[in-house]
Amino acid sequence: WSSSDSVRSTDSSGDAGRAPGGPYRVVLLGASGVGKTAFSSIFAGAADSMDSDDCELCADEVCEKKIEVDGEAATITLLDTSDAETDDGPAREHYMQTGDAYLLLYSVTDRASFLRASELRITLRRFRPAQHTPIILVGNKCDLARRREVSVNGEETQRFLCVDEVRPLSDMQVPTVALSVSEGRACAAVFDCKFIETSAAVQHNIWEAFHGMVRQLRLRRDSKEA
Ligand code: GDP
């Protein structure tokens, strides 16, 4: 990967000079309601932290924390773009330009958020045309999938969920077809990024997403050093 692909607001020369363990600026992107705030709350919480006191809230949407991935410490500065979601101006541009890596969230229960993730990926590409900034496409709220239909060869074909997340599915309710794992994977392949399904509600795969991100950042670092 190119050494010029990390554009940082504080260091226009990219990530040269940064310590090997970070801090890495990881940006949460996604439509409103997909779970960005839930993600940052889990990140800011004590779970999986090397030191429960090491999370610093520098601003409303930023949390810096040291975590251990594969026996090596890494510091992540997490930026939650919730407040900038409706702002297509300078705030959005700032996030698009200053992240070292992006978690691109959608909700598996919300196709509009899936489309939004595609739009955001395209916008990201515009800001970083020939660059390979690590991006993970995250299908959140997988706990809401009520049923998966599995084909004979074991591949998931469809999943259904109740439109209402609390009430049980009644005969009168038409189930909404939620996004399948294979749709997420296919989209990630087109986007040239990794994919993971998560549930912030039951804390499933949240840390795997952060750890995967750190691994990608390290791969990028190592390939630059080689
Ligand atoms: P944001 O607008 O992207 O920051 O979304 P929030 O984090 O505020 O989440 C929107 C709503 O979805 C809240 O009511 C959350 O409790 C809920 N939510 C977030 N993640 C999950 C999840 O994984 N599963 C379920 N069932 N609800 C979630």
From TrEMBL:
Residues 1-13 have a biased composition (Low complexity). GO terms for cellular component: plasma membrane. Keywords: Calmodulin-binding, GTP-binding, Nucleotide-binding, Phosphoprotein. GO terms for molecular function: calcium channel regulator activity; calmodulin binding; GTP binding; GTPase activity. Belongs to the small GTPase superfamily. RGK family. Interacts with Calmodulin. This is GTP-binding protein. The chain holds residues 62 to 287 of 337 of the full protein.
